[in-house]
Amino acid sequence: MRALVVDYGGVLTTRIGPSFASWLAAEGIETDTYTEMLRDWLGRDAPPDSPVHRLERGELEVAEFNRLLAARLTTVDGRPIVAEGLLDRAFATVRPDADMLDLLRTARTAGLRTALLSNSWGNSYPMDVLTPLFDVLVISGEVGMRKPEERIYHLTAERLDLPPGQCLFLDDAQPNVDGAILAGMRALLHTDSAATIPAVAGLVPALADELREGAS
């Protein structure tokens, strides 16, 4: 492996699910309507023009997505959901994962090329933190394609100037991992840093050497 390609939300940050769960509870949103929205807009059978897919490809403004999402969900007491700032509230408790950021720094020290490959929900990325860690940044809304479309993995490999087979991809969503494998990359499903870091080290000897030196 000559490159490490990573997702952002849920890989370089704390898990997304607990933040959304806190938001649902705080605003009294019916969980059934949220689950149905995920199935219809983001599930494997979701149409390519679903609001989530359009948002991720940069075809839908965040404000309009917020309005569509607020209209789709219901609250337990019938109160309307405030659309303005909805996604900001949903992601409010997501924080950086220091161990995964350190893994990227170690990967660069070990001579690996690095790329961010992220499906954006209109998120504000901390570029002051991310830019020094990556050779390549591929954000779905900026390139008009999204994971798990095969072409976005090929684009990332091209920008790294490497064949897909020399890239190891990390993501917390199984469909995106499957898409990377279909595109020719090696890929691992990220659950937490305690599991991912040794798994990556097992596939990249140079990185394993750097991690051992750092621990000594």
TrEMBL record:
<protein>
    <submittedName>
        <fullName>Putative hydrolase of the HAD superfamily</fullName>
    </submittedName>
</protein>
<dbReference type="GO" id="GO:0016787">
    <property type="term" value="F:hydrolase activity"/>
</dbReference>
<dbReference type="InterPro" id="IPR036412">
    <property type="entry name" value="HAD-like_sf"/>
</dbReference>
<dbReference type="InterPro" id="IPR023198">
    <property type="entry name" value="PGP-like_dom2"/>
</dbReference>
<keyword id="KW-0378">Hydrolase</keyword>
<dbReference type="InterPro" id="IPR023214">
    <property type="entry name" value="HAD_sf"/>
</dbReference>
<dbReference type="Pfam" id="PF00702">
    <property type="entry name" value="Hydrolase"/>
</dbReference>
<dbReference type="InterPro" id="IPR052898">
    <property type="entry name" value="ACAD10-like"/>
</dbReference>
<dbReference type="InterPro" id="IPR006439">
    <property type="entry name" value="HAD-SF_hydro_IA"/>
</dbReference>
